[in-house]
Amino acid sequence: DVSKTNVTVVGGHAGVTILPLLSQLPGGKFSAEDKAALTQRIMFGGDEVVKAKGGSGSATLSMAYAGARFTHSVLRALKGEKGVVECSYVESTVVPGVSFFSSRVELGVNGVEKIHPLGQLDEFEQKKLEEALPELKASIEKGVQFVRSNADSK
Description:
The chain is α+β, with helices and mostly antiparallel strands. The chain is built from 4 helices and 5 strands, in the order E-E-H-H-H-E-E-E-H. The termini are far apart.
C-alpha cells in the first residue's frame, strides 16, 4: 500500500543533497534503472512541480504537508509517546566531516532524544552520498556564515 510507504530520506534540502534510502524499504525491490529514476524524481521533485505549474508556483503544498506531519510527530513525542521517529536536519556526527545532516531521529519530551545512524547503504546510495557531500558542506558553511554575520541583528 503506497499510502503507508515510508522511505527514509537523508542528507540535505535541495537537489543532489537529497538521498532516499530505497534499499532500506522493507520489501522494496528495484532494478538499477528504476532505482536511479525514482531517486532522481525524489531529489528533484520540487523542480518537477514548478515545471508542471509552468514556472508560476512552487511545491508549497508538499512542504506544508511535511511540516504538518512533523509537527504532529513532535506533539505526540512531547505528550510522552515513545518511538516517534522522523527524518530531521540536525547538527550531528552521523556523516564524518559534515556538521549538519538530515537523518532519522527519535523525538521525545526533550526534543531530539536520539540520532539514528544511516544504516547499511547499498553501492548506489553510497556513491550518491559521496556526490552530495561537497554541495552539502558548501551549503552548511554558507548557512553558518549567514548566522554569524547576522547574530547581533534583531
